[in-house]
Amino acid sequence: MKNKKKDNNNSKQILLSVLGVAILIVAVVGVSFAAFSYSKTGTQVNTITTGTISMNYVESDNAINLTNALPMTDDVGKALADENQYFDFTVSANITGTTTINYAITGEKVEGESTLPDAGVKVYLTDMDDDADSEILPPTKLSTLDKTAASEASGAPEGQFKLTTGTFSATSSHKYRLRMWVADDYTVTGESQAYKLKVNVYGAAAAQ
Questions:
Q1: Is the pLDDT of residue 60 over 70?
Q2: I want to staple 128 with a disulfide (CB 3.0 to 4.6 A). Which of 20, 34, 164, 175 is the partner?
Q3: Class of domain 53-205
Q4: What is the pTM assigned to this prediction?
């Protein structure tokens, strides 16, 4: 019986020794893999070169100045063509490369100098390329126009009247004409009233 116990003890010791060696081998292998590293310096240079982007906004000398204006119908307003009855401007871009520019044309009310309500004024925007005078924005009350949001693709600030938006993907230009008049459903009071609107243009390159 004692011999059997000794044999059992020896077996356990051998088993433990074998396990100990196995654990040691795993540990050594693990350390070997952890210590292995490789590095090589590349020889090729990868390059990105941006194109050139520029935008331009040119206003005409004449601005809208309707003095003693009375409410008028859309048909009459759309036909305004005398000096100081319309405002011409050009938006252009110079692009090399594959960049796209998102732009917005907005109207900004001159606060403190505008006494007519937004609902009493209509605006009408046309495309004047090749003297076409084709409609972009139909006669619309300022009060019903969308306003720019905080995250406009064009980068326009929040809260301005959105007249139109567009994109440039190559060097080109667009001519526009703005007309503005008192809406025919607005009741004129005995006091003189005015509305002043600035046209702004904003542009930003689209994410590539």
A1: yes
A2: 175
A3: mainly beta
A4: 0.75
